[in-house]
User: Fold Carbamoyl phosphate synthase small chain from Pontibacillus marinus BH030004 = DSM 16465.
Amino acid sequence: MKTRQLVLEDGTTFIGNAIGSEEESFGEVVFNTGMTGYQEIISDPSYCGQIVTLTYPMIGNYGINREDFESIDPSINGLVVREACSTPSNFRSQESLDTFLKAKNIPGISGIDTRKLTKVLRKHGTMKGMFTAVDRSVEEVVAELQERPLRKDQVSMVSTIKPYVVPGRGERIVLVDYGMKHGILRELTKRNCHITVVPYHTSAEEILHLNPDGVMLSNGPGDPKDVQEAIEMLKGIIGKIPLFGICLGHQLFALACGANTSKMKFGHRGSNHPVKDHATGRVYMTSQNHGYAVDETSLQSTPLISTQYALNDGSVEGLRHKEYDAFSVQYHPESAPGPEDSNNLFDEFLNMIQTNIRREREACRSVQI
Assistant:
């Protein structure tokens, strides 16, 4: 097999076997601790522009199949694994990991010590990295990495270009696509919702004109402060329509209400993160993928309250508006991959919508009387 090297911006270098595309690639190097779900991870738009390290020692053993994609075209910039299985064993499998990466023009590396790489990222934080040929000077690559900035327009790269409808007979939901996972659509369609998916830059006026029963804010990549259009839109709809935000949507909801967000050292990426509910004391196992978090101290001067927190580091995992029908979570209740402990949040959102509809009808009747 051909070899290639992965060089981090601090000069740490790993040499291994090349898989996938043969092109050089640049991005932020992150790690995911999930034991399964590599296909969903690779196709999650929230990883746009990143080089993803999978900590489980063998990846690709159940192949690639048509049912488990979270987007049509993966947007990761690279994949790092300890061992890439070339002979998957699974009745659903249609191709190997390597052939899929080649087809999608995604470079990868196998045969390196992913445990060491993960420990480096945990100690020093996520870093820029690059896949290059082994004969290229490490000093030259490091100099390029230190000068080359990470992109800030990831959301525009993965959001839908035009609105589209997924028809249903139930509640009418506007789903704002910041890099939406298909799992969100699956959960809403399973509940017979009529869904209108709109681009990230859709204005408050355009959303209100659609007259939805509720608005859902999807997950997505990058720094929430780079998506100013979304923050302005949210300021125009909070209090007017029931709202539910997931991951990046959760962070944008916080910013629109006056809270602050900050970059985490190495983020939360995996399918086994415990989250505790303040009110009930119940602990949920959750799927997570985010590099930014809401600053808890910044909530004091806002109309938001923290509803849930991460047991591993105490970071904010849930928010609720004190006055209006609006809430959000930092994790992924649609799972894919991961546990389904918090799947009921979609039902909670629809119950909120139905309560709001009844309230509006009663208000109309009282005015007529």
Q: What stands out?
A: The first strand starts at residue 3 and ends at 8. The chain has two domains: 3-151, 155-360. The mean pLDDT is 96.
